[in-house]
Automatic annotation (TrEMBL):
Protein name, UniProt field: Probable zinc-dependent alcohol dehydrogenase protein
Origin: domain of life: Bacteria
A GO MF term: zinc ion binding
CDD domains with a match to the protein in the record: sorbitol_DH
Annotated keywords: Metal-binding, Oxidoreductase, Zinc
């Protein structure tokens, strides 16, 4: 079937691609899905521009895409919760149900997890896919396909806010106003934060951040120190939580500076190389440090919050392309236009 294929680093093509793997066979507890909307993720772009992410190396042509929504077109014989015609979004990582990590409730860190568009597993920038019922979530009528394709990045923010153990009235700092920083801001507010400061170097991104909620304050890191600003606004105390969502070693080195005593730092941004952080600054605060890797079973919560209006991701969707324009879409995403947050690709229906 016609798919967006990363042939090798820097080379994409939209071409017929035979998927004859066993995962395309409909098992009794699988559903076949007609894809509708697929978001372009930073990781997809990184595979395109670098050919690898850490230990995951593209060694053979691979279909990109993992942030998706669609419609159920066929169900396996033992499927009970989904029917043909249901609108759904899909969690892209499939763990081994019998693994120790899964049984401990943290299947996202299962080394055996199979995740779309992570070599050697194909992604879903293609007309159809087969997916387990257990990782396919039905959409309420008022959640659109484009919002539903935002559930995957949103899940990262919701998992981060969960790990932070946000309490009502907390003050949070988010370093980085990219898609993950912004969904984390929305998740932190939905979890009860009174105020969220978002720091970034790009003014346009800060404007988008502030447009999401009156409880979000943008801080231009080129002009103002986030630590000084937060201390000035909190009588010198600091913030309760810092979410690091840049993946920049420079930002990570300063991650404890705005933090109040007893506060929590959540490391979200990927760090391909070892970094140093100020352990002394962490110590004198008795800071709690959490690390997250993707998410574990938060898709239903994300869908529920989109449906209720507790979280609105629509302003984050800044550009849409047709499937035919996929290669151009990736070239555009790789150029990282400052006014864009999330770009999406719509498949023909
Ligand atoms: Zn993603």
């Amino acid at each position: 079937m016609k798919s967006l294929v990363l042939e090798r680093k820097d080379e994409l093509s939209l071409r017929d691609f035979p998927i004859e793997r066993e995962e395309e066979v409909l098992g009794p507890r699988d559903v076949r899905i007609k894809l509708h909307t697929v978001g372009i993720c930073g990781s997809d772009v990184h595979y395109y521009t670098h050919g690898r992410i850490g230990p995951f190396v593209v060694e053979a042509p691979m279909i990109l895409g993992h942030e998706a929504s669609g419609t159920v077109m066929e169900v396996g014989s033992e499927v009970t919760t989904l029917s043909v015609g249901d609108r759904v979004c899909m969690e892209p990582g499939i763990p081994d149900p019998n693994s120790k990590a899964t049984r401990l409730g943290m299947y996202n860190v299962d080394p055996a997890v199979r995740f779309w568009a992570t070599p050697p597993v194909h992604g879903i920038l293609r007309p159809t896919c087969v997916h387990p019922e257990a990782f396919t979530f039905k959409l309420p009528e008022n959640v659109r396909f484009d919002e539903a394709a935002m559930v995957e990045p949103l899940a990262v923010g919701v998992h981060a806010a969960t790990k932070a153990r946000v309490k009502p009235g907390d003050i949070a700092v988010i370093m980085g106003a990219g898609p993950i920083g912004l969904v984390t801001a929305l998740a932190a507010l939905a979890a009860g934060c009174a105020r969220v400061y978002v720091s970034d170097l790009a003014e346009k991104k800060l404007q988008i951040a502030e447009s999401l909620s009156p409880a979000i304050t943008g801080v231009d890191a080129r002009k103002e120190s986030i630590a000084q600003r937060v201390r000035a606004d909190t009588d010198g105390w600091g913030c309760d939580i810092v979410f690091e969502a840049t993946g920049s070693p420079k930002a990570a080195a300063q991650v404890f500076e705005p933090l109040a005593p007893g506060g929590c730092v959540v490391m979200i941004g990927g760090q391909p190389d070892p970094i140093s952080y100020d352990a002394g600054a962490a110590m004198i605060r008795e800071a709690r440090v959490e690390n997250i890797f993707r998410y574990a079973h938060v898709f239903p919560r994300c869908v529920a919050m989109l449906a209720s209006g507790a979280i609105d991701v629509k302003p984050l969707i800044t550009r849409k392309f047709s499937f035919e324009e996929s290669v151009h879409a990736f070239e555009t995403a790789a150029a990282a236009p400052p006014a864009d947050v999330k770009m999406q690709i719509e498949l023909p229906q």
